[in-house]
Amino acid sequence: MQGRGWHIWVRRGLFALLTLFVLAGLFNAFGQRPSTARAASPEAELQITAPTRVRGGLLWQARFTIHAVTELKQATLVLGQGWLENNTINTIEPSPVGEASRNGSLSLDLGHVPAGERHVLYVQFQTNPANVAHRTTDVQLQDGEKLLLSVHRTLTVFP
Amino acid sequence: MDVVIRAALMYCFLLFLTRVVGRRELSTLEPFDLILLIVLGDLIQQGVTQSDYSFTGLMLAAGTIAVMQTSVSWIGYRSPKKAGLVLEGEPIVIVQDGKCLERNTKRERIREEEVLEAARKNGIGSLDEIEWGILETSGEMTFIQKSQ
Question: With a cut of 0.95, is the ipTM above it?
Answer without folding.
Answer: no
